[in-house]
Amino acid sequence: MIFAPAIFFLLVFIPCHAQSQTFGDFKYDETALYAETKQVNQFFRRFNGEEDKQGERLYEKDRDFRTYKLRKKYVPTLFNLESSILNDAGKENFSELVLDKDKPVFLDFHGGAWLCELNTLFIYEGREQELTLFLVLQEEVVGSKWVIDGVYFEPFYDLLKKPDNSNFNDSKFLHPLSHEVGFMNIFRVFNESDSLEYFGNKYFQPDYLSLFFYEIKKGRLEFKTVKDLKFHFFQIDGWYFELTYFNRAGYNSGWLISNLLEIDEKNRDILLNYIYHE
Amino acid sequence: MKRFSLILIIMTGMAFSYTTQAQTDISPERKRAIDSLAMEKIRDLGKYISIIGNKQTPFSEAKRVIDRTLELFVEEAQMGVSSLSREEVIYYAIREYLERLMLLNYDKVKIEWFNIQYISDLELQPDGRYVGVITIFQRFEGTSDDGLIYKDVTKKDITVYVERKQTQIGGKLIGFWDVLLGDIRVVETTK
Amino acid sequence: MIKRIFKITFLLMIALSLSSGMAGCKSKKKLAREQAAAEYARTVETAKQDLLSIINDEGNMSLPEKESKLQRVKDMNINEPEILALTRQAEEVIAAEKEAMRKKWEEENKKKTEAVSLSLADYFALVAGASSVENANIKMNEALKLFAGPNTPVLIIISQEGDLVDYDRPTTAKKYLEYLKDQKKNLNEIENIEYDDNGKIKLLELIKKDY
Question: What is the three-class DSSP state of A219?
């Protein structure tokens, strides 16, 4: 499959919508608006072949619903074609897998294994600072909702880290008979706050989310605004992709796949750690 | 922790996906009627905004129309506006937004819609209401009395809440779809 | 001897008086029976005539009068076959007249609805197409006179699937007219009107034009 850029959009969209609107001295090409993947919801529908060229929802009873023919037209248009990160081979392999005629692969909004990375601004210690929230869609008894799954905030990270116990630690410890002196030596633990984490158990990992909620409740961390967001998808076996919004002119715009990686279980964990800044 | 939560969510997602399918039990035909109703509310909003922003509208009429506009929204709905030059979102309560619009110094306000709207699926919330988002593209043109024209093209993502309710009218039990608008994100586009 | 004669005479007199009294009793009973029979016959005849008057009436009696007469006959509980048959006939006549009246009322109501519908539809168009706010307000106030009050409920059908009817959020006459004035568009058609005893609209049902 060759990913020639604009031609695909023209083939998918132009037959129905070669129209423009004139507003005064402005001429607007509505085809570009039809071509744009305007919502994440639309990304799901186009990927799955669940809408027609006009953006009208298709249902099981409709002839073109989830057909190979329709998806073959749509899937190539869902990549950011102005990217140097995405390579053609990767895109082709991925597309081959998801468009397989015998075992096609679809995305499921409620299928889990995808998360949102939301960049925000908070006021902390008198300064505006960037804070990243990680959110996932959680299914409830009735309906579903987004929940905060993690936080990355540099001031928290700088102050409180998971201690690196990979090397033998022969200096920071409470000796095994500390109990005999009533732990009077524990004062040393609190004198050196930089090494405080070494005195936690070996499983200790800072819970930044609790810290986040705590600081907000104490009034020391104040929300200012949201900035931008993107999505990380692990739903397709053996693959990861990132979804980003491209606000630009032309036919290749809106929510598009901005990164694509073939991954196994091990790489998946590494990638997740990387995304969550761990 | 995140790994566990992600795995848990995958498993929960698989367990719940069939029930959530069943929960979205509005037939395609009824969905189309609801979509059409929601779009009408949005067009009504556009018209109300034109009336409010127009200096020719008498003050009392503009105030009355502001009240009618607010009836389209849930309480505490917000406008979140960002521009190309400024990524971060500025928040306005809807009433505040409309009152600012009324005080804008435009002699004439023209709001036009591109002939395209995108309507998402309706998703069920934990409180039993359905929520959807409708995306529209709008061209705003404001002409001040000294002839200066401000134009922009914005993409608006409009939250829509849909709830089936019943009420007694004239001794008869009426079932109706209560469609209310919620938060609106406004993004300036390059188009 | 004389005593004996007196005794016999006395006894004879007693016997005579008894027998004549008995004969008097007997004829009173007979008389009563005859009188009752005559009364019954008169009652049956009256009932018959009443029923025939209902059956053969050519518009001289009102429906309530007929119903009242029929009920009186029924209350007499006359079990004569002829009366029972005539009662059934009279019931059929009254039922037919009621049906004819109902159809006439429906027809009249339909015409009235159409007449008011046209007028109301005209007002809707006038308010939506008014050249100014002042003109729109004038037409709105005129239109509101057709309604029982400004808060008369207005329902708008958005979809129908068999018996399942979906409406938009209910509104009122005043709010709907204001909506037409503000939006300058009339997207709904009149589906049904209900009236109160004063002939004013007490409920208006609209349906979306493109539905």
Answer: coil
